[in-house]
Amino acid sequence: MPQDVKEVFGGALAAKVRALAPSMTRSMQRVAETVAGDPAGCAALTVTRLAERTGTSEATVVRTARLLGYPGYRDLRLALAGLAAQQQSGRAPAITTDIAVDDPIADVVAKLAHDERQTLADTAAGLDTVQLGAAVARWPPPAGPTSTASGRPGSSPRTSCRNCCG
Description:
By secondary structure, this protein is mostly helical. The chain has a single domain, classed as Winged helix-like DNA-binding domain superfamily/Winged helix DNA-binding domain (Arc Repressor Mutant, subunit A, Orthogonal Bundle), CATH 1.10.10.10. The protein has helices spanning 3-20, 26-37, 39-43, 47-54, 58-67, 73-89, 105-125, 129-138, 157-165.
């Protein structure tokens, strides 16, 4: 599995845990760090088993899930299972939610970074490298009094603007 895929969402989860750590009790921190460190393993655990693994109570596990932004442990477990599946497939996680006013900064950064990566990937996928190579080979445009920023001999900036802007 590519390391960067694990870091995209797993890193965001770890960052969220670090950001929220000051507001957690030590037992909640143990639960959160365990979940962030082993999403796939924790996704397979019941609330009781995760509490046993972390030496905490079931209530602490549920409170930790809520603090991490999930309605309860069941929802956290489903999210961890999705993360584990994406890590195993080697695909970057789909981040489909918009940025909300109350999103933790780590989530905002993860969402923006994902959006930028996706934009670059989409651009690269649609890029005709043959045409790009030809354009690079022609750059810079010929210098001289009949050449303008548009690269077309005989055109003026005003003509170029009229041609594209109307």
